[in-house]
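Entry type: protein chain
Record version: 2
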Amino acid sequence: MEDQARVVFMGTPEFAVESLKKMIDEGFNVVGVITAPDKPAGRGKKIKKSAVKEFAEKKGIKILQPTNLKSEEFLKDLKNLNPDVQVVVAFRMLPKQVWQMPSKGTFNLHASLLPDYRGAAPINWAIMQGETKTGVTTFFIDEKIDTGEIILQKEVPIEKNENASSLHDKLKEVGAELIIDTLNLITSGKVETFPQPQVENPKKAPKLNKENTRIDWTGKGKQIFDFIRGLSMYPGAWTELLVEGEKKKFIIYKAHFRPEDHRENTAQISTTKKQMRIAVKDGYIFPELVKLQGKKTMDIVSFLNGIKNKDQLAIV
């Protein structure tokens, strides 16, 4: 390893912290960290630092928090860091003058096996689409999003009952290892790349929003089950529930699916004291961990205990 290669790290969420920590533990010369500006968060709107900033502060690393990546001030500050290589993990799209700056290039860690699942939410979409494997990819950044030449890839299986939270934790560990391997190749001058395979319709991983996280009860049970676990524990797959005559957002964080032939209407709800059953075309979805609008997250038994007229619950 070339000990004195100057590395600048760019990242914001908790997923990125593991990679930064690993780089420091492995003795890389991290001369600066670029992360998102502090912003108000939560009910009290307290100013919150990014997970990467909190970690970098503890390590005494110089931190830059630009609002505009093209501003003269930021570009000057970045140039003063004199990076040989830049590492990007869960950050934002970089302008050309930023990613072209280091002599050894700028590479990104993406939580999928590119070219599939380009976009903002690859971990969620891989599970939501029922995949049985995913992985991590390092690639050199170019003008487009997630299209650069691949350096390394590592495959990771998706377990039968895996959810987005558990897969997130797996991939951040595997991703951190891949970053170290990639940095060693780059700093030793041994890096080789290959173009991303040309796929006619690569699977996409768009940003999650209110529309694409709503449960479609007309789908097959396995699809709905995958959809729910792919959005657990954040942001959560949701539907609208009629409770005591009021329409409320109802998030299902955990459920199981039981295939069964029946003649019930799609999305029809049946309850007992301990169980809620939602009919789908080829069986039933049984919610296990839920959150009703205005209430805290709770198991299904606690939720049902708080409902007076269980027989009037309905999906709308």
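Comment: The chain has a mean pLDDT of 96.
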